[in-house]
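User: Here's a structure from my thesis project, written as structure tokens. My advisor, Dr. K., wants to see whether a designed sequence matches the one we expressed. Can you design one independently, without my sequence as a hint?
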């Protein structure tokens, strides 16, 4: 009885000028779950690798046209992750040694012993797998490090700005009180005939509006900094939130504005719609800030797409727009308090700072990717479970 052989799940590229050899090997490897893509020579192999990313290449060293060694060098140059197993003639092991010097994973002499070949293929495949996960982990660590650098800077900036906000709050209150008092005086019957009364009233209105605007900003700043020190501001508002519903609610609040600018807003949701463990009121505020920015950055005929994704651990809300995009130097600063590229009265530069504060407090992350002239994507990542 034949022993049960393990079945693999691997795709390889077999490069050999002998069509019969390719057919036989492809058939035998195919029975063991190794899918074989074929190329008759180096040129074709390189072309195929451009279209179909294959990590393991099994290649004859002696081929008409481009030699196996040349093809190997070019494959390693363009696809450094790929591993190449060379097939050499029986009497030509020196070729194999040369191949290893040029970056081959290993060499086998023809005629190839099937089990041996399969073993080499799986070893190469596993090596690539290990390399990939190590790289992913390094990338993940780098991202976390960057987020921490951003967070530290924002906390420092926020602390400084909120110190100023705190100082300004008192004089603001005094200005508002005094303006109120003046208004009361103006309202008295004996003031009815006062010269230029209307001008005084207008000036008081301007003072009132300016104070209101300043108070919104100081309030926002203090809010972010204050909640930063507590774990979750109001744990009673945390719940499992249907993200699709919340996103649709946020859209309904900005839809008419978007429509009047000729911008379409679309929702793409995983099924079933993902949910997150979060505070819906706070998250709504973040969504509205992001939507407002996207609408402001996008012209007629533009599109905003909100995509919802989920895994076991986390849910993602991606807000993508086809707007102006953000330059590299600005990208590092957009989450800072008061950073704005908008004119006076159009933006205070608080939207993203407040959003960052809220999302971090909710135990999530907010990140941005953008290309000038193409658009921007803001991604909020939130925990799924309590
Ligand atoms: N979707 C986007 N597309 C292009 N630029 C953006 C986008 N979102 C943010 N920005 C840039 O980031 C800056 C900061 O955004 P933020 O929301 O913090 O402040 P603001 O929109 O300028 O003012 P506020 O939100 O306080 O009204 C913006 O001025 C803009 O330059
Ligand atoms: Mg904004």
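Assistant: Designed independently from the structure alone:
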């Amino acid at each position: 009885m034949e022993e049960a052989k393990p079945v693999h799940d691997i795709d390889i590229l077999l490069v050999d000028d002998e069509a019969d050899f390719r057919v036989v090997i492809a058939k035998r490897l195919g029975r063991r779950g190794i899918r074989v893509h074929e190329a008759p020579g180096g040129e074709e192999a390189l072309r195929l690798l451009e279209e179909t990313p294959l990590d393991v290449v099994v290649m004859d060293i002696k081929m008409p046209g481009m030699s196996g060694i040349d093809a190997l060098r070019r494959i390693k140059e363009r696809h450094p992750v790929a591993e190449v197993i060379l097939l050499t003639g029986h009497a030509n092991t020196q070729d194999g040694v040369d191949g290893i010097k040029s970056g081959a994973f290993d060499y086998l002499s023809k005629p190839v012993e099937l089990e041996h070949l399969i073993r080499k293929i799986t070893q190469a495949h596993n090596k690539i797998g290990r390399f990939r996960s190590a790289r992913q982990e390094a990338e993940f660590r780098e991202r976390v490090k960057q987020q921490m650098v951003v967070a530290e800077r924002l906390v420092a900036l926020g602390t400084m700005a909120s110190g100023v906000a705190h100082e300004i709050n008192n004089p603001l209150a005094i200005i508002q009180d005094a303006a109120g008092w003046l208004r009361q005086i103006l309202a008295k019957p004996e003031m009815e005939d006062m010269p230029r009364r209307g001008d005084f009233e207008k000036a008081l209105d301007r003072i009132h509006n300016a104070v209101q605007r300043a108070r919104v900003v100081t309030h926002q700043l203090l809010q972010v900094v204050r909640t930063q020190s507590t774990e979750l501001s109001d744990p009673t508002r945390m719940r499992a939130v249907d993200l699709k519903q919340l996103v649709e609610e946020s859209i309904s609040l900005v839809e008419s504005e978007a429509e009047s600018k000729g911008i379409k807003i679309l929702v793409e949701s995983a099924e079933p719609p993902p949910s997150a463990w979060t505070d819906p009121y706070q998250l709504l505020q973040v969504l509205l800030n992001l939507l407002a920015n996207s609408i402001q950055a996008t012209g007629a005929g533009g599109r905003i797409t909100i995509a919802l994704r989920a895994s076991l651990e986390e849910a993602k809300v991606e807000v993508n727009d086809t707007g102006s995009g953000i330059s590299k130097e600005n990208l590092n600063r957009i989450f800072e308090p008061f950073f704005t590229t908008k004119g006076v009265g159009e933006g205070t530069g608080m939207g993203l700072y407040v959003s960052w504060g809220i999302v971090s407090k909710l135990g999530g992350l907010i990140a941005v990717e953008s290309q000038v002239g193409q658009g921007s994507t803001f991604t909020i990542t939130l925990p799924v479970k309590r």
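When you compare it with your expressed construct, this may help: Residues 10-112 form a domain with the Rossmann fold fold (CATH 3.40.50.2300).
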